Amino acid sequence: MLLHSEKILAQDVMSKEFITFNDNVKAIQAIEIMVQKDTEEIFILDNKNQLIGFVTLTNIFKVLKDNLYQDVSLKKVIIDVGISIDKKTSLLTCKNIMSKNKINTLPVLKDGQLIGVIKKEKILNYLYRNLEKSQVRLNHIINSIHEALCVIDKKGKVVIWNEKSEILYDVSSKEILGNYIQDFFPNAMIAKVLKSRQTVKNVYHMPKKDYHIMINVEPIWLDGEFVGAVSTDRDISEVKKMSNELQKANETLQYLEGEMRRVIGEHLGSIIGRSEKIRKRIEIASHVARTEATILITGESGTGKEVFARYIHDRSGKKGLFVPINCSAIPNELFESEFFGYEKGAFTGASDKGKIGLFELAEDGTIFLDEIGDLPLPMQAKLLRVLQEKQIKRVGGQKYIPINARVLSATNLDLKEMAEKGEFREDLYYRINVVEIDLPPLREREGDIPLLIHAFLRELCEKNKKDILGIESDVLKVLNNYYWKGNIRELKNTIENLVVLCRNETITMDLIPEYIIKESKKKKYKIEKSFDLNKSVEKFEIDMIMEALKLSNGNKVKAAKLLSIPRTTLYYKLENYNLECR
């Protein structure tokens, strides 16, 4: 028999170097490993380490193209094992099985577990080491393998040059067989091995335009004597193309992430404040962050509902994305396709490649439904079904896609009242409101306004390429006394306005919009809620005295005239109210 291959068993030549994954691994992750490890296939095991199939780069790439290069599970890509052998199978039987079934890889199993892999190139390499003893060329095998194969003797003459080599290097076997390899390829790697007699693995080169080749060269020894070398040159052009496209996709993703950070601002992921009311909300958010409970964040417009949602996501430990959706900004006719995606040709104007939905984009992450009160009733019913069944179906699609995304919602409306009026589904209200976090308006967060002002000042000076500006104490007092109907959003916009208009190193009173000053004074002189007349009169007197001293540049005589009181009375009140120390 051929080289006594009936005596050589699979266990003698099988490789124990192979890559395995569980079937829940993502396809893009598998591609990265395969490109890094320079392999064309990986084997898939179940949770008991039993072999269930394998996947190839070509098959993954086809599925990724069909899914718009979105990450998919290897479950969609698995090819059944089909044929396997045990370690006692003869090398000749292995060769015959491969030839008959036109395959290049055979898994070796023991009790259903993968213990080795037989590759056609491994068989060939084994056979070529015994080439001179066998006197057999194995042309029917070498011309069927995918790699370009070249074998030279110890003098450098070509003894094997298969059809793949002819195609790859544009040299026919008739021209090169029996001639020196260096006459055709002066820098051939296999010729260098004649001198070094050392194995060469995975050397990359481009023999011609758009051809990417990985070369492996092995010296051939017989009974301790060097007799030649064998090279297998693998065309990785398709792998290279896939790697380039993957890199392009990663670069696009990095760009989008950068744009997202630029738009949302660097402080969106943190909560600024130390008032008792905001601390209580932070404690609740931290406590529920790692649970799977749906959370409804309520509060006036501009109170920071998305900030809290991102805070919860960041502390949830979830690996997926935070995907915010403003329900009030999506046209009614586009809700379903935006939320759940669509298949190609689903409707007029649809992309011919289809589109992934926002729920799929948030897989293993968090989807934030802002302004959920504006969600149309028909979409409320579909959202409720998704929350209950944990699966979606794309527009125009036939199959259901499981989803695993934490849902956070927010509104400035009274959903309970809307539910009572039939304007919001009551069952959806209770489904999204397992935990409610009601954010206080800025005017009720005592002591937080100065903190927010200084934080925004640093951020906005950097954004507008200015040195950090100072701010007069009177400006802080006015801003602290203002009602802030628009809450934190209005405060931040006001600070940016002051930063942009400021021409000096300090923000002064003349930069503050007149409406803010007027509203601030109304609050300033408002009678205390306790209706304590003495305290109100005392506060009024102090404010009037300080205003008179400011107008008179500290001259007490002039201040007393402005107040229409004797100078001695002014001195008495200054001492009584301890104003000399202020």
TrEMBL record:
It holds the Pfam family CBS. Residues 271-500 form the Sigma-54 factor interaction domain. SMART domains: AAA, CBS, PAS. The keyword Translocase does not apply. One of its GO terms (biological process) is regulation of DNA-templated transcription. Residues 239-266 form a coiled coil. Residues 134-185 form the PAS domain. One of its GO terms (molecular function) is ATP binding. Keywords: ATP-binding, CBS domain, Coiled coil, Nucleotide-binding, Transcription, Transcription regulation. This is PAS domain S-box-containing protein. It comes from Maledivibacter halophilus.
